[in-house]
Design brief:
- The complex is a heterodimer of chains A (59) and B (140).
- Helix content of chain A is 12%, strand content 14%.
- By secondary structure, chain A is of the alpha+beta class.
- In chain A, the strands form 2 sheets. Chain A has a two-stranded antiparallel ribbon with strand order 1-2. A two-stranded antiparallel ribbon of chain A has the order 3-4.
- Chain A is rod-shaped, with a radius of gyration of 23 Å.
- With 140 residues, chain B is an alpha+beta fold.
- In chain B, strand 2 and strand 3 form a beta hairpin.
- The model of chain B has no long low-confidence stretch (mean pLDDT 89).
- The chains are: A alpha+beta (59), B alpha+beta (140).
- The interface between A and B is small, with 11 and 10 residues.
- The complex binds zinc ion (ZN).
- The site of zinc ion has 8 residues of chain A, from loops.
- Zinc ion (ZN) binds next to loops of chain A.
Chain lengths: 59, 140
Amino acid sequence: MALPKRKKSKSRRDKGRTHWKLTAPTVVKCPQCDEPKLPHRACPSCGFYKGRAVISAKA
Amino acid sequence: MRHRKKVAKLGRTASHRKALLANLAKSMIIHGKIKTTDAKAKELRRVVERLITFGKKGTVHTNRQAFRVLQDRKLVNTLFEHIAPQYADRNGGYTRIVKLGFRDNDCAPVSLIELVDYKFPEEAKKAKPKKKTEEPEQNN
Ligand SMILES: [Zn+2]
């Protein structure tokens, strides 16, 4: 069976990890209250989605 | 063959899943809208829409098919006499899912699933004499 000949050095290990990145979530402005919100989701601050109150606001 | 006939298993055995969806369907008929996880809402849609179609047919046979899921005569009656007639002019798409965000506890994606433009028995009676105003906050 094929096996690694050498231990992967810290440097090479960490170089591989340079591609581990976080992506920022897409955020849109709520047309109702101008607060930032996630797209395709009811607004957590005013409870509106597509121009009508879906759920009563938390605050 | 079950090619491309995909059903979400919801991490449950067949009997557990059947019981869960029956419970959720009952809640839908009682309350008109419920909050649940995205995955459950999407599966529930299938169950509830089928029930409403049974209600629209309104035969003894479909009545019994609906009873098979709901296991409650009262709920079958509300479905057949009250809910189904409201959708007489609608060909499918009786439910609406609105994504709400993520639950605090476990970060599970939560949705609101509701019967589209549903009027409760009391509301429907009130609506006849005078036009009812849009006030969704009161229903919550
Ligand atoms: Zn808003």
